[in-house]
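Problem 12. The chain below contains 385 residues. Write out its predicted structure in token notation.
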Amino acid sequence: MLDEAIQRTETLQSRMRDAGISCAVFTSESSIAYLAGFWGYLGIEFGRPTMLVVPAESPPIVITPLMESEMVAEMTWVQDIRTWEDTGQNSWGRALSGALPADPKELYIEAQDIPSIVRMYLDDRYPTVRLQDIGPVLGAQRMIKSPLEISVMKQAGQIAGAMMQAAHGSLRAGAHEYESALAVIDAGTRAAAGFLTDKGWERFVSPMIHNLQILQSGTDTSMVHRRASVKAYARFDPVYFCFCNMAQFQQYKLGFDRMFHIGDVSDAAARVQQAAIDAQQAAIAAIRPGVQAQEVAAAANAVYAERGYETGYRTGRSIGMAYLEAPELKAGDETVLRPGMTFAVDGGISIDGVTAGRIGDSIVVTETGCDYLTDYPRQLLVTEQ
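Solution.
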């Protein structure tokens, strides 16, 4: 993993030189993990920024809190690690200024991801310096996944499959939503642990599956992103599981959704769910190199229109180390698909206050079409009890 992180950074520096960019500051966890090979467990939500400064012509610099520096040094390949402390003169702002050029004409930042306290510091410290966005430069590089990245994402897919199997097995009339969420966390964590060792870099990678499970049942399934509650399941209830904030491994994040029906399913609910499945399958059938992202969305939208449903915001999104990367499978996105791109591809219908139909998988674009990264039956799923 670290050897590849070195190569990614060298590629970025070459792109920066070609674009006339002398220095960039990265503040998002996904970009730092992608380039420097490490991530932490306390971050900007505690007001404690970690940053990666990448000059075009010299080695990168990590800026991290002193208390995390030992772990960071073990995880990253970057040699120049500069620490800061919460009190005294050794502040993160001072460390950042020391890592930047003495008199910059412009600085490149992650405009969409920079924490407000870092942005305010740069505005105050460098009031006449133009701040430009490095996001599109690194984003273009991250679109195409390497064989190593795809192999890790396939492992994440196996972990997600174990999570979905546990979700399915937890369902019965009278069981509670939170019990399903606990089953998902346990199964995913155990599956992730099976891919790790306690040696070298891997000993810092936690197998723990976490975040609040997105789960709705009954008439609440139309709410899309409600979290697991103490609600008990009843016969005929649809139950929707979304793992988009949980199905991840070594920072690679997948999209993976399924809907189940408790014991039986009404004809109306079955029609909605089948329409979502068919729309997703139409989108996946359209994926191949040379196709525009918006054409994939159009294939799904045609199914929705034929069945009498409104078109959703998008059919899918690019996935990787961030929850949302470029491009998106939606109207107006003319990005041409290439082998190595990875997407979460969804079928989704909401009928407010009544029911919903949902399905989602992650795929990788191949030379001839695409392969699934996630796997679970793509059909109407009805539990036995």
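Discussion. The first helix runs from residue 2 to 19. Students who got a different answer should revisit the alignment rule from Section 12.3.
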